[in-house]
Amino acid sequence: MTRAALQAAISGRVLTPGEDGYDAARTVWNAMIDRRPRFIVQCAEAGDVVAAARFAREYDLELGIRCGGHGIVGHAVPDDGLMLDLRPMGEVTVDPAARRARVQGGAMLGALDRAAQQHGLATTAGNVSHTGVGGLTLGGGMGWLARQHGLSCDNVTSFEVVTAVGDTVRASAGEHADLYWALRGGGGNFGVVTEFEFALHPEPGRVVSAEFRYTVADARLPMRRWRDLSGAAPRQATYTATIAGLEVALGLVWVGDPEEGTAVISDLADELASVAEPAARVVEPMTYLQLQTREDDVEGHAWRRYWKGHYFNALDDELIDSLLARDGTDLPNVSLQAYGGAIADVADGETAFSRRDTAFEFVAASRWQDPGDDEHRMSAARRYAATMDRFASGAYVNVLGDDGDAGIRRAYSEEKLARLTAVKDEYDPENVFHLNQNIRPSGR
Ligand SMILES: Cc1cc2nc3c(=O)[nH]c(=O)nc-3n(C[C@H](O)[C@H](O)[C@H](O)COP(=O)(O)OP(=O)(O)OC[C@H]3O[C@@H](n4cnc5c(N)ncnc54)[C@H](O)[C@@H]3O)c2cc1C
Fold first, then answer.
1. Of 114, 173, 126, whose CA–CA distance to 151 is shortest?
2. Does the CB atom of residue 86 touch ligand 1 within 6 A?
3. pLDDT single digits (tens) 279-292
4. Regarding the domain delimited by 206-404, which CATH topology (the fold level of the hierarchy) does it fall under?
């Protein structure tokens, strides 16, 4: 097994330990991940994916797939295996007349947002522009447009995929429909996606973001009021709340006509103030691209990270009390983001993505720098999130940790899992693609 043989087979670059660029290429978003692949293949084209995957099979190397490198548990980076680094395949081509974007498998969300906005178009993407289109879309893809246009995966009209045996196939409603179904929510289990085709929507790019800030001690009644109003919110509004330390921010993000948004926000402000005056109000008009990059720095690289996630079908009063029970130190920050709208319009059986009846997605996220704090910070996050276990109705596959089959059962119903397993049996019976939230083939 030689580096030269691998390099001869591909047009991109091969990196091995010690070479220039190797450490940068194996570094992912979560600084807890420090793994050393035997080979990193920086794929320049789909043919490189085929050749590198064949090489990995021939030499029995574990295969990791890296797009944005934001997967919280770092499945993209295999220790002593072969990492397909798709980032050189990061192009986005927009056809404004057809309202379609062709997005290479290693593109970042920012590239998709920028290319589409040049034509006054957009599709659902996540909240941080350095996240990869690949992992985000294959697991679902929640963003500020989802209540209007569905999840990212709901907007994929076709995928070009390199399968476990090295075939290149197109999956859409009319071709390999079972694979098309599984790729919309089933993660990186079924092959390497070298191209996504997305539907785009007219989006003039005007946004208003609103936050009303309270201390934890004062937030109970306003949070209940905020929850009551969220159910009837127009689709342009995504209700969102954060808890950082002992500060709670209740609000919404409005994507649409700013005047209409300002009126909705002003109603929310009045309602909240009627139960408790906020300590601060922050109402900011901005462009869609500003919204899509505003968390880029605070969600930057080089921090050690740990997450726990839940889906909640309702935020009842007791759950709100648990969220606000912030008596420990070093607790994780919390974000709540409303689902509903177009996400729930799609019938559950239509895609692998599950739990479409979710009202709010919850993520408890810790970050720190000293490895000596690992255990303490992770156990604080686990303890806090566990106080909400009984209210949860599953979890988003893209925020699961290393929870194995138990995590998979939180993400998918038994029925979904059976169907996903059948697709896995067909396209990857040897479980070549197992470094992910793994759908195991039958009998494995
Ligand atoms: C800062 C931050 C913000 C986030 N915000 C959001 C958000 O707003 N909405 C949301 O829904 N999620 C969000 N997430 C979660 C995000 O969806 C997942 O972390 C996702 O896995 C990131 O994808 P990636 O391509 O960046 O990661 P990677 O680590 O590169 O990939 C994760 C996994 O996806 C698979 N994969 C990636 N690309 C491909 C491909 N082309 N073909 C086949 N398999 C592939 C592989 O199995 C890989 O291990 C966020 C995460 C972070 C860290």
1. 126
2. yes
3. 999 999 999 999 99
4. Vanillyl-alcohol Oxidase; Chain A, domain 3 (3.40.462)
